[in-house]
Amino acid sequence: MLETTRPFGTRPDKACTAIAFEVRIVRTHIDERILMDEFENRIDPDKWRPLIMSFCQFYGLGERVWQSTLAEIPEAAYRPVAQMAR
Known about the structure:
- The chain is mainly β.
- It has one helix and five strands, in the order βββββα.
- It has a three-stranded antiparallel beta sheet, with no helix packed on it. A two-stranded antiparallel sheet has the order 1-2.
- A hairpin with a 4-residue loop joins strand 4 (57-59) and strand 5.
- The mean pLDDT is 82.
């Protein structure tokens, strides 16, 4: 459920380009394959392998696990136009 939105990264010379969404979690759905055998409502950390994006690369709980096409884009392409000329 959406609680509120908040602009961030604002500058006096530019319109807001980023918005944070604050949400309230009211229900979750869990794949039963990652539940603990002895409990019906606990995640087994040995079965759960989250995929985490860090600096445009995909990681598990250790090493990089997947190549990201986002990482192939030159970092300068993400800079504002005014900074690209520098």
